[in-house]
Amino acid sequence: MTVLVTGGSGFIGSALIRHLLEEERYAVVNLDKLTYAGSTSVAATRTARYRFVQGDICDAECLAALFREVRPDAVIHLAAESHVDRSLDGPAAFVRTNIVGTFTLLQQALAYFRTLPRQDQDRFRFHHVSTDEVFGSLGAEGRFRETTAYDPRSPYSASKAASDHLVRAWGHSYGLPILVTNCSNNYGPYQFPEKLIPLMIIKALAGEPLPVYGDGRNIRDWLFVEDHVRALRLVVERGEPGETYAIGGDAERTNIEVVTAVCQALDGMAPRPDRQPYAAQIRFVEDRPGHDRRYAIDAGKIGSALGWTPTTPFETGITRTVRWYLENRAWWGRILRSTDATARRGVAPP
Question: Has residue 272 been placed in a domain?
């Protein structure tokens, strides 16, 4: 089975490719523009079943040529601008990549799909990977489900909501066999340092303040990336075309609980020279504009339909993640030397 993964050099995409290549029956083509957050973590995978193509999902000619050459059995679409804070400072990039890019990819996938023999059409899938942020903010009770109404609150979530609607429209109007998944907050190895958990690890080790937005009580559902990519593979293999599946970690935590858990893991694995707890570095800072209060996912549908459940408890995932960043300082050190990944964003008008 040949799978075209867009954004395969990103955090989730690279984890997915490593997972797929563990099985001999998969061949993977990774299409990635290699923006600031693109990682070469898949490059170490030395197998004839993996190929990297540098390209932009907004480039129709590039996509058309790639479909003709690769002839994929499935597309798993992960290419996206994904950082809320960056979307507040520069929404145009999010509109271009997440909306225009998804439209362009859909058009080229549909053109390719229409050239396939019937038996290959029956096999083909277009799997669009999205986020729980499209649903807006929850109160103290309830969880997002596949039927939850959309209510995006940031430029990032609005652009992802638009891309979700485009994908479903191409399925309904043109018969493209689409699948949509909406996941909760991912974490794990190889995550770009601007995201909360790696940011806290790196700043803690540098002896810098650990900035926590607002009162620290915003809640997210945390999903270990290896659990997520297992779900993505199941959806593309066995999901029903036209269906949506919500993927969550069943691990709601406030932001201050997450940062405290990171600090406690570091206390055990890499104590400060003065033996003081890393939590002493926590500082509450000005909140993100329009910061959604709570997200949570009900993953019952994917559990009952496909037999998937998360298997990595939050405490285990945090321990594994902190250990990985401690053991791979060269990886994130190169990023810090070439980018301003740990700088505060999302406080200035666009």
Answer: no
